[in-house]
From TrEMBL, chain A:
It is found in: Cell membrane. This is Branched-chain amino acid transport system permease protein. Signal peptide: none annotated. One of its GO terms (molecular function) is transmembrane transporter activity. GO terms for cellular component: plasma membrane. It is a multi-pass membrane protein. It comes from the Bacteria. It comes from Neomesorhizobium albiziae. Keywords: Amino-acid transport, Cell membrane, Membrane, Transmembrane, Transmembrane helix, Transport. It holds the Pfam family BPD_transp_2. The chain crosses the membrane at residues 12-35, 42-62, 68-87, 99-118, 149-168, 200-220, 232-259, 266-285. The keyword NAD does not apply.
TrEMBL record, chain B:
It is a multi-pass membrane protein. It comes from Neomesorhizobium albiziae. It is found in: Cell membrane. Pfam families: BPD_transp_2 (PF02653). The chain crosses the membrane at residues 27-47, 54-79, 99-118, 125-147, 172-193, 223-248, 260-285, 292-311. InterPro entries: ABC_transp_permease, LivM-like. PANTHER family: ABC TRANSPORTER ATP-BINDING PROTEIN (PTHR30482:SF17), HIGH-AFFINITY BRANCHED-CHAIN AMINO ACID TRANSPORT SYSTEM PERMEASE (PTHR30482). One of its GO terms (molecular function) is branched-chain amino acid transmembrane transporter activity. Keywords: Cell membrane, Membrane, Transmembrane, Transmembrane helix. This is Branched-chain amino acid transport system permease protein. GO terms for cellular component: plasma membrane. The keyword Membrane applies.
Amino acid sequence: MFELIGIPPQALFGQLLLGVINGAFYAMLSLGLAIIFGLLNIINFAHGAQYMLGALVSWMLLDYLGGSYWWALLLAPVTVGVSGVILERVLISRLYHLDHLYGLLLTFGLALIIQGLARNYYGISGLPYAIPPELSGGQNLGFMFLPNYRGWVVIASLVVCLATWFVIEKTRFGAYLRAATENPTLVGAFGINVPRMITLTYGFGVALAAFAGVLAAPIYSVNPNMGADIIIVVFAVVVIGGMGSILGSIVTGFGLGIVEGLARVFYPEGSAMMIFVIMAIVLLVKPTGLFGRTA
Amino acid sequence: MTIAVEATNDPLSVNHASGTMPVTHRVVFLLLILLSLIAPFFVYPVFLMKVMCFALFACSLNLLLGFGGLMSFGHAAYFGGAAYVAAHVAKVWETTPEVAILLGTLSSTVLGLAIGSLAIRRQGIYFAMVTLAFAQMVFFGALQFPFTGGEDGIQNVPRGDLFGLFSLRSDFSLYFVVLVISFGGFLAIYRIIHSPFGLVLKAIRENEVRAVSLGYQVNHYKLIVFVLSATLAGLAGATKTIVFQLASLTDVHWSMSGEAVLMTLIGGMGTVFGPVVGAAVIVTMQDYLASLGAWVTVIQGCIFVISVLLFREGIVGLIAKVLRRPL
């Protein structure tokens, strides 16, 4: 078997695949954060908790109702999205006239509540969630072994990310959305119900996080802390990419996942730090972020 | 960016020119000193020392958030970083406690300088995310560096003898050392916010563009207050290590940063005495509810939500509003 710079190809491509998978989650989560930030002007700290809720709801569906993975893929984002709509209407919408930081504090509190409740009822040991039978097994690609489920995660997340991009950049609804991001008062004056659009946007962003959670459930076990662990890294991803561009969020998410995967091959001790080091460099060289606009 | 400080409770508006302390502040200071001299005879001293360390920690954040208008969501990095350094110095290098505290605090100054100079390149919400992300990097560091002891942390740190002369093994004698340290830190913050430097900070908080137009090097001021705040957070963390003889991952975890924010919020952002009250409330609550486990997190989350929605002035802010005096 040939070797690349002393590294067996199985290890290299294996870590690269892991990197792409992580990147898929970074992309979906940072995309949701960017959409919510664009319209609501708040950073949704509860995003990680809602990602965890997506995984937890799919586990509950299976455990209590015997619902399959495919039902979970549909129902978990809808359930969590609806809970997001309620949260926005009842709590978050009261803060729009205040400084952005209060939104951060409120959603931080919500994240603590959701995580604390999950920990109370389900412990911290992690609940196993089996890979659906349709996607078990894998393909031998010659240079590496590709488990079917991991391939599915990459494809599903790409489709969802690109569909979101298409809706926002190419449809009439997306045009309203972009206009409202720039100037909500003016869009409201044209007779468009901006508050409802804001509510639906929050619901959609949250549903996207829950969808990522369902995809993640069979890979990482369902664990109340899974959201807190990933959301801070996603914040760094968002700082690196800047939240100005939808496509930028997707590219940055996948890109950083791959870089992290490579770091795990060549310098495993530093792989956890990699994204933060990149963030420091980006802050030095281009403080607005790779795809950011000057504020 | 404008944070908190609604209506009347602006502590910067009184008597800064003449350099004297307003009467209300004198009274509160006297009461605090009196209370902290009597308290150890009635309350468990270790509990009081915990309150004082966290009060200093929350005050350091309030200096940055309430007076500088800069939202750091990663203050655990300086608190916990100093805790680890102080623990290592006291245990492995076997120095006296004041040297351990000093070196721990200095390490936070350096860390604050490094992170602060990067973080001030972004504003508002990004600033909060950058500080949080770098704090997480420090957390990963604490998890991986050989000297931090990974999951175990550094345990059984000796309290030692102050200046090599006075033994701090008894809680009672240590109490007064901690009292001097936390009061010293508190007075330093009081001095900073009532100095001309503090006034410029307030101007930047209220209207950054205008401060720039007046010729102030806004970024210098931001960096200086960031480093000062990190240093004081480090002082709190290093002192905490000597009290509990322990530095652990909890000290650098993001939830510790969240607690500092919660203490400041519930006491009153931008008030002088608010964070002290907030720290007392939260530490007492944790102590009483410790048996409830994860419910403490849920309750803290609820307090966050309620404070943000209904109670943005905080306890001291509300009292100041009623008394119509800045506190």
